[in-house]
Task: structure prediction
Amino acid sequence: MSKVAGRASRRRVDFVEIGLVGGLLLFAATIAAVVYTPLRIALSIAISGISELRVFERAYGPQHDSRYAEEWIIRDFFHDRRGGTFLDVGSNDYRKESNTYYLETVLGWSGIAIDAQKEFAADYERHRPKTKFFALFVSDVSGTSSDLYVPKANTLTASSDAAFAEAEDGKTVVRQVPTITLDDLLAREHVDRLDLVSMDIELAEPKALAGFDVERFRPALVCIEAHWSVRQAILDYFHQHHYVVVGRYLRADTANLYFMPANPRADGVAR
Result:
């Protein structure tokens, strides 16, 4: 057998082995799911969510930048409308796992990004000309300071909750960051209307919402991360302010909740 033929044969064997291993793992997961109820439920939700994600992929092509299905869902809600205005709270990196990078660079949106980690500022200035970036901690009061626990291994999970940050990614470094309310920031920047609010601030969402008059700015869509420990507080806030969950996205993205006004404004966005 030639060396080339030998390499091809080994490659085929490798693919077969990978297929067998994958099949065995799937079989094992299926058996485990039958025995272990939480896994069975999780698999059922995941399978139904996959079918919905395929619809988005067929409509909008490959996912580009966001971590989960956020980009697809936001595009679907607004039907790729151009020239909107966003508020990105907990924006982190200018592109990596960003919910607003595609909106700005492809659809011509503009807006405000805010994150407690100031090291992201330079890349926003360099790569996101339609976005104003602010290195502040969003809270229910302005002009104070808050502890921010930043994991050494992963800045994406920085949090004001030390136990949460350490449980996610190990040892942290603590920083003092100036606080601001969203109402004060938006007033200072002369913003009176928003189309989208995206919020991902690792358990600080209820405090941030306490300093935000959602009925005043009336965003058409709010995408907000909802860990189980703060999920009810988030649901209560939006219920009190006459916003409802967008039900059709619940299975497609189980990490976030999506809210819209109970009585949407006539802005040309199909609901």
